[in-house]
Amino acid sequence: xxxxxxxxxxxxxxxxxxxxxxxxxxxxxxxxxxxxxxxxxxxxxxxxxxxxxxxxxxxxxxxxxxxxxxxxxxxxxxxxxxxxxxxxxxxxxxxxxxxxxxxxxxxxxxxxxxxxxxxxxxxxxxxxxxxxxxxxxxxxxxxxxxxxxxxxxxxxxxxxxxxxxxxxxxxxxxxxxxxxxxxxxxxxxxxxxxxxxxxxxxxxxxxxxxxxxxxxxxxxxxxxxxxxxxxxxxxxxxxxxxxxxxxxxxxxxxxxxxxxxxxxxxxxxxxxxxxxxxxxxxxxxxxxxxxxxxxxxxxxxxxxxxxxxxxxxxxxxxxxxxxxxxxxxxxxxxxxxxxxxxxxxxxxxxxxxxxxxxxxxxxxxxxxxxxxxxxxxxxxxxxxxxxxxxxxxxxxxxxxxxxxxxxxxxxxxxxxxxxxxxxxxxxxxxxxxxxxxxxxxxxxxxxxxxxxxxxxxxxxxxxxxxxxxxxxxxxxxxxxxxxxxxxxxxxxxxxxxxxxxxxxxxxxxxxxxxxxxxxxxxxxxxxxxx
Length: 530
Fold this sequence. Notes:
By secondary structure, the protein is of the alpha+beta class. The protein is built from eleven helices and 25 strands. It is globular. The model is unreliable at 171-183, 281-345 and 350-378 (pLDDT under 50).
């Protein structure tokens, strides 16, 4: 790292550090500018909490450097839209600490989202499917993540999840960095078999995923106790209590959160269960990554804030213990990874006081007006017939595409999955904003089985205001903070016709929706208190 003109901090004569995004015991993540390719990136600066580590404990310093290099190599082996992309690594050789250059994910982390309250089961199921897809890709490449938790799931600005921080990932043929009898991970989300010193295999990552979804819908961790040792004891010896708010997710949580890894369903079966959970609760989206947008934050999180809520970032630890004797005697804990200071995880440009509206175009909380009777009514923004028609025309004109696998209208932007010409299954994602027009997203995917692309030519957009009014009146969502319209193509798998859906949700996770025909006739109501 060198200082450029006017005191600019430039790494490897190429990456200009701009804004601190987050940090913890293991270093700092920066928003940076790639001066060669003229794009924004995230740069992970690895620094131990004790700067004298290399001098008095060279073996630990060497282990840290090797761990960082392994993280980069593990990430490079997994190419998937739900896994953070690594662009470059800067390594000065032995005695130095590397820098990892990654894609910049602008929507904050799942931990940030959960700090504002629990999720509806369908929303959690959709995020769970995206993370599961990432894990399946990693497992196929021989990589186990070993630290799946809300802080390590980033959200793109359209709500799609991205798994990050493979710093303690185990690669099947290169696991020497895990000392004999040691366990690496975050205690709250660690599978029982890993607590006792075993490798655990892919099934252990699935436990962590299920526990994360439990926390997402329940708003608390069922086995978290006052100390780390007490939490580990609960993971080893206590049953996971049945969830109360999981709804359609109840079955998958009950089947995965069992101590015997051989008794857990495989990834394919879990994906089917999550797909059912999302569909049964009426979640938007029909693609292979049918994820809702991030809920608008109540306020930006300061860059130094520790989020003391369920799902908060916690310190990953290494427990030097003999297998089977975790809680019997002398346990020594050594922090190995960040997150304890917890502003934002690696690669995230989540809500900090440095984030500008242009840098993070996540929908902000709509302003409210007072409707008759004193109820709060969200501002419409893009949710008008004229705005929807303008957005649709702009996307069609820009892309030349007339059929869609998804079309979602939020107060501040429209997202669409436009079908690839000549294909009935493949799509590219696009976003329209009034100020910037049409932007192509990085997501390329295929529709889920049974979904049929739809033309929006004959949809009655003039019915949208009446549908919004019906939703505010009959869906019983108190003080909604997000209202959006989702166009649902027909599905032969679930025998569902094409429809327009209106969703209302609030900061307490209460969500209701209505379903209407493309011409605007209401056919189903799903109030929040049903």
